[in-house]
Amino acid sequence: MGKIKQKGKTGAARVYITRNQALKKLQVTLADFRRICILKGVYPREPKNKKKANKGSTAPVTFYYSKDIQYLLHEPVVQKFREYKTFVRKLSKAIGKGELDTAKRLENNKPVYHLDHIIKERYPTFHDAIKDIDDALSMLFLFSTMPVTDKIGAATVANCERLCAEFQQYVIRTHSLRKTFLSIKGIYYQADIFGVEVTWIVPYKFSQNVPTDVDFRIMHTFLEFYQSLMGFVNFKLFNSIGLRYPPKLDVAKSESAAGLAAYDLEESNSLPAIAHGDNKQARKRIASLGNKIGDIVERDAKTDERPEQESAETNAAVDNGEDDKLDEFKAIDEDTSETPSKADAQVSSIDASLLAPFTFYLSREVPRFSLEFVIRAFGGKVAWDPVLGGGSPYAESDPVITHHISDRPHLAQKYEGRVYVQPQWVYDSVNKGRLERTDLYVPGATLPPHLSPFVKLSENDYNPEEEVSADEEEEEEEQGVDDNEDKKAIEEEKKVEEPSADVEEDETEKVDLEHQRELEAEAAGIEYSEYMKNNKPTKSKKRSIDAMSADQKSEKEAKELSKMMMSNKQRKLYNKLENANIKKENYNNNLRNKKKEIQKNKKAKANK
To answer: Is residue 189 within a helix (H) or strand (E), and if so which, with residue range?
Structure first.
């Protein structure tokens, strides 16, 4: 006879653990527990039976896997959290007693933790890291546009700007940008990096008001992890195409708001040494880049960064290469096509040189931060108004310029030999993979619809870009000449061909009613021939039956039979689906008809 199972020791009660139990086991506060869970990627779980998992209690609690919490017990970062608390307690004591020498000594020996081992645990291969950088990029671009406050330090904003600019430089160099879309929330981009579609959103550069109801402690924890992750990813991306990392920052250009033009990309001939962390010069350059950014930030913004000291120093420790050697991701097997190499890094150059023959000039009212990135990613050259920043390679009057991008209804001065377009022309041309007609995008003109390239239309969906054929227009003109009787006939035919939703819903009821009448006639002793004479089909029914072909009749009969075999629940669901399809088709037809009417009115005005 086996051992008797003790209550609460097996099954769900053993697999899951509550949050309070996890806090007691780890001996950490709730804030530290949240931080370590975010960094390690441990999330709450939902057991199938909460009562069993909670040992019979029905109180609302948060559950985690017991193995995940056991896994956190051996995490070095948890020990660093404890050391930091001890450090804060000693520092406050020393300051309270006026022992400044002791306080300085403690500050110099402040405990700092690194996230490199966590990144390598969560992303064993570089391909895994690429798949998970969508959210990282979106958050980094968000914080790069945020104003410096007591909650968001200047060092954090500067570091986010640097990481975002480095990633953009890689996309420009490899021409891996594929799609872009201007939305209300911001500008969406999609790039093809080692065969993975990476999509992120960049907010517009308006003056931001930092909300007060946002928990910035949680966001800073995510940001801390994403900064370290993007540092590793950018290093590997630059290394894969033979560029030195980090790129050199021209301080003079950066101070004049040159943006992406402030970074100088250099080719590297010693890739293996850098990859294995044997190049001390690379580590020195990383540290010097951080110092340069710090100098610029100190000149421009002098704010209190106390709430951010811990996270800023941690990021600096990771990004400035204080480790003994630079870490690298494990390479994938050579058999797979996912191995990041120089050959693989050269992404398919389909339409990559779409804008290569052109030189663009950006007026002061257009978004330079986006247009410069998109144009350069597709091979074009960019110049801009001095108001938008320094470092422009061409002046406004330079004859090399082929396209002038402006968002004003009227221009005071125009130069010969160049095309004037609105910014949407660039985005639409990129999304469609071909140069759009420039006469539709001249300044002051009503622009065509800017459609999202991320939406995939099915065959029956309405496509605003589909053109109305000449045959359809001729048919509509002939229908417009017909008299009222023909219109009524057409409406009746449409009703027969496209039954309304109410008719579809009542079809089953009519079939059941007809069957019931036949049974009643049979019970009353009435012959079938007499019953059929008394219940002849109406003219409309005859017309609809005659109009159907043999295949259509058999298909309709099979459909009715299958409906009769359905249960009441299945029949209702089937009718709902049919009605939804009919409504969608009617909606699409209405949109098509509206488009045809608009085109007719335009032609009529043009003929006048």
So the answer is: strand 187-193
What DSSP letter does each residue of 233-288 carry, written as one string?
A: HHHHHHHHTTB-SSPEE-HHHHHTT-GGGGEE--B-S-HHHHHTT--HHHHHHHHH
Are residues 571 and 508 in contact, defined by beta-carbon separation less than 8 angstroms? yes
Cβ count within 10 A of residue 412: 5
* Dihedral, CA of residue 366, residue 367, residue 368 and residue 370, to nearest 10: -140
Q: To the nearest 5 percent, what fractions of the chain are helix, strand and coil?
A: 55, 10, 35
DSSP string for 281-331: HHHHHHHHHHHHHHHHHHHH-----GGGHHHHHHHHHHHTT-SSS---PBP
Q: How confident is the model at residue 11 (pLDDT cuts 50, 70, 90)?
A: confident
pLDDT tens digits, one per residue of 311-354: 444 444 434 444 444 445 454 444 444 444 443 444 444 577 88
R_g (Cα) of the chain, nearest Å: 34
Q: Report cis status (omega within 30 of 0) of the bond before 246.
A: yes
Tell me how far apart the alpha carbons of residues 286 and 317 are, in angstroms, rounded to a whole number: 11
Q: For residue 299, what are its two tokens?
A: 């000149």
Question: Cα–Cα distance between 276 and 369 in angstroms, integer?
Answer: 35
Instruction: Please state, in angstroms and rounded to a whole number, the distance separating the CA atoms of residues 70 and 488.
Output: 77
C-alpha 188/C-alpha 427 separation (Å) is 11
What domains are defined for the chain? 12-74 (no CATH), 78-108 (no CATH), 116-345 (no CATH), 359-441 (3.40.50.10190), 470-607 (no CATH)
Residue 516 tokens read as 């019931």
| One-letter amino acid for residue 37 of the chain | C
Task: Report how far residue 215's alpha carbon sits from residue 186's, in angstroms, rounded to the nearest whole number.
Answer: 22
Q: CA torsion 307→313→319→323, rounded to 10°?
A: -150
Question: Residues 355-405: pLDDT tens digits?
Answer: 988 999 999 999 999 999 999 999 999 999 989 888 888 898 889 999 999
* DSSP structure class, residue 449: P
Both tokens assigned to 407? 């968002």
Strands 16-18 and 381-384 come out as unpaired
For CA atoms 70, 72, 75, 81, give the dihedral sign. negative
Tokens for 125? Answer: 């291969």
Alpha helices, H only, 417-483:
424-432, 470-481
pLDDT surpassing 80 at residue 307: no
Give residue 185's identity as a one-letter amino acid code.
Answer: K
The partner residues of 246 in beta bridges, in order of sequence, read none
Q: Say which range, 91-95, 280-284, 411-415, has the weakest mean pLDDT.
A: 280-284
Q: Tell me what pLDDT residue 316 has.
A: 41
